[in-house]
Amino acid sequence: MAKSLTVIACVVSVAAVATAVAVVSPDRLDLRGAIAQPGDKIADRPAEKGPDKPSSERRWLAVAPGRIEPPSGMIKVAAPAVGIVSKVLVKVNDTVFAGEPLILLNDDEIQSRYAAAEAQAGMRKRLRDEQPATGKAADRRKAEDAVADAETAVFEAQMAVDRAAITWRSGGGSNEALTNARSGLARAQDELGKRQAQLRATTADAPLPTPLEAQVASARGDLAFARVNLEKLRIRAPIDGTVLQININPGELATPNALQPLLMIANLMTLNVRAELDERDVSEIKVGQAASIRAAAFPNKEFAGSVTSIAPLVEPSRIGARAQQGNRSDIDAIEVLIKLQQPGPLTAGMKVDVYFNADKQASR
Questions:
Q1: For position 305, which CATH number holds?
Q2: Which residue among 15, 25, 117, 176 has its CA within the 20 to 30 Å range from the CA of 232?
Q3: Domain total in the chain
């Protein structure tokens, strides 16, 4: 009987120990589920993160908001004088050349003053010619008359260019006629430069002018001033470019201090992106850095570009979302200029995002 109890006690003890091992060490039951097998793919597991991770695995070094702009900037053309608009010679999207008349103003008073100044200069010259000059005084007088004639030739050549441009713009003139008129203006300007150089050389040791000669010089100065005022009635294109905006119509009054410019012009042959890069990312970006530009208007397209300049100044952001809400002080950015290789459908003023490529560092 005692031997039977001993056997039962041993069996119960062995069962208790086995149960305890199973409860305390459940990992011993099946360890294969917690160990990667040789056939498993590393990509199926979460990627490792940490400071030792190579930076080359990042596709973008930085991302910055930007805006498309022409290299020339958006040029706002204002009226140099007060006048009633008589004609608007161009329309939006027209391509213009530097010096082409865009808007004509009408001011009868300025035109009358020009006619009076022209008549006065002619009369003073006739009175002076009644008193002959000799020697170096005669040479100076001849040189002054040559300069005055050259100035008149330039003025008349400019008027000829304007007439040819207006006729060509309206579709009634040929491109050849406009080209010839512009060539004539260039020749007249060259001739004026030569005459002015001769006058400077002649007056170096010439005697003082007589009262009649001084009156001629004064009258010619008044004529030049009248021509300047007359020129202000023709608003010209300051650069070769495209008309982006027109804010005035014939019959309206143009003033120099108007709230809106009369026109906006830009050269759209090439386009840049002015991006605002977070100051914390500036060490990653170099001049020549390749970049990809994306616009919300073209979600499936990327436009290539490269960094051309990095501003040396940190300023509050003016493009970012928080900056638009008025919280400028909490965003410090550096302006980075990116030149677009092929602008394509992108237009001036469009908002874009600039992605600076990580695999195309600029060479130092």
A1: 2.40.30.170
A2: 176
A3: 1
Q: Domain range spanning residue 324?
A: 60-72+267-357
* Distance in angstroms (rounded) separating the CA atoms of residues 270 and 99: 21
The better pLDDT of the pair 331, 171 is held by 171
User: Left, alpha or beta for 50 (phi > 0: left; psi -120 to 50: alpha)?
Assistant: left
Residue partners of 321: CB distance under 8 A and separation at least 6: 65
Residue 68 lies in a domain: yes
Cα 165 from Cα 96, distance rounded (Å): 10
pTM metric for this prediction: 0.72
Residue 101 in any domain: the answer is: no
In 3-state terms, what secondary structure has residue 211? helix
DSSP letter string, 243-269? EEEE---TTSEE-TT-SS-SEEEE--S
Is the Cβ–Cβ distance between 313 and 334 less than 8 Å?
Answer: yes
- As a whole number of angstroms, the distance between CA 231 and CA 233 comes to 5
Q: For residue 244, is it within any domain?
A: no
The answer to whether the beta carbons of residues 84 and 251 sit under 8 Å apart is yes
Tokens of 274: 């002015």
SS3 content of the chain, % helix, strand, coil (to 5): 40, 25, 35
Residue pair 234/90 in contact by the 8 Å Cβ criterion: no
CA 33 – CA 141 distance, rounded (Å): 110
Strand partners, 104: 87, 234
Query: Which pair of structure tokens corresponds to residue 317?
Result: 């952001």
Question: Could you tell me if residue 317 is inside a domain?
Answer: yes
Please report, for residues 39, 52, 126, 146, 214, the alpha-carbon distance to residue 210 in angstroms, rounded to integers and kept in the order given.
Answer: 109, 90, 14, 18, 6
